[in-house]
Amino acid sequence: MGKTKRLLTPGPSQTGSPSRTAGPMDGYLGTPRDMRAHQAAAKMAPPSPDASSSDSPATGPAREESLTQIAADLATISANMMSKADKTDLLAEIRAVIREEVMEVRRDLTALERRVEELEAERTQIIQHRQATDTATTRQGNVLLELRRNLEDLDNRGRRNNIRVRGLPETAGEALPELLL
Questions:
Q1: Residues 70 and 124 in one domain
Q2: What is the pLDDT of residues 129-175, one digit of tens each?
Q3: Is 123 part of a structural domain of the chain?
Q4: Which CA distances in Å does 22 have to 12, 58, 62, 79, 104?
């Protein structure tokens, strides 16, 4: 699931030249290179009217250098921005990852569904077996009760046939015919 992230556009460390000087847009673009020099230049008073027009920052070579620097900064920023093709590729990668993860979740869900069905089938078999066991146990309990009743009845009937004669010795060694006559 964990793909390595592929950079679609080069980062600022890959495109910009390392010897680039700070430009007037750096304060707005978040690059804090030589911020003090930029702030000092911004706090300076406007040039006096008697100064030559060629040295004026509004019209002279400093302005052209400033505009060149701004153009270079804008080119760097636009080079670092993602193009439409890069965004499309990134979106396709994200969709592929999501599709793969959804398929994995579906496979897991199918496997869990199969296991639940197997467990339900086993549960049904166990319930049927328990019901059969309960029925057999109840039937055996009834049979055992009936056997006890029959045994008690037979014992009572066997005692009814026992005749007790008073005065007869219970030992076998005595002469029984003499006693009866």
A1: no
A2: 999 999 999 999 999 999 999 999 998 888 777 777 676 666 666 66
A3: yes
A4: 15, 19, 14, 18, 51
